[in-house]
Amino acid sequence: MVQETKEQLELEAEIKAQAQKFLKYLNSTLPESMELEYEGFYRRGFFVSKKRYAVIEDGEIIAKGLELVRRDWAPIVKKTQEAVLMAILKEGDADKAISEVKKVLKRLRKGEVDNKELIIHTQITKPLNQYKQVGPHVVAAQRIEEHGIKVSRGTIIQYIIVKGKGSISQRAVPYEYSEGYDYDKDYYINNQLIPAVERIMYSFGYTKKDLQDMAVGEVQQSLDAFF
After folding, report:
1. Is the dihedral of CA 117, 66, 109, 123 positive or negative?
2. DSSP3 helix / strand / coil % (the chain, rounded to 5)
3. Residue 150 — φ and ψ, nearest 5°?
4. Residue-level pLDDT at 130
5. Domain locations along the chain
6. What's the CATH number for 115-177?
7. How many other CB atoms sit within 10 Å of the CB of residue 208?
8. What is the rounded CA–CA span in Å between residue 49 and residue 59?
9. Does domain 45-113+185-226 have CATH number 1.10.132.60?
10. Which ranges of the chain have pLDDT less than 70?
């Protein structure tokens, strides 16, 4: 981590002071019913779009619209995205960020990830028989009802995508009944992990194909070790 210099701290203090002066002036020009507030000072930030970004404040990541703050992404994916952002925003180290991705790819490929880290949460928004498109959460909910448990509107379904035949939706298994199933490695790598880190690492020259090649590389390394 880069150590703060006296000059950097003085510059930060000056920027904050000038921001407060500007805010005071700007509010004096607005109608009485309007007032802008000072939100914070962020040394580094990453912006995917106006409503999707991450900044760091006092060593903590503050994110809006990214996967790490959404429940429909697996915990391992959110933790990886947070580790990637921490490496970039706190330490300014893109190499460390990609190293974090490689570590998780290796764990996923070797089947070392516990099902608890792979749970996807999705809310049921209407009666199950009213869904025209039957997504994974609906299939998982139907399987819960097969066990005699009623699923109603507002219920949060926890499920994982398991290895097997059929579509992704058909392979959605409620987490509470997932013991004994093997998770779908390709799904979690290509549909969860890579999309979540690609939008960040693209700015540092890593494409979706680069990340996919890393995943393939983990497979090759495993085969080399076997032989």
Report:
1. positive
2. 55, 15, 35
3. -75, 130
4. 95
5. 1-41, 45-113+185-226, 115-177
6. 1.10.132.60
7. 15
8. 23
9. yes
10. 1-4, 8, 39-40, 42-43, 218-227
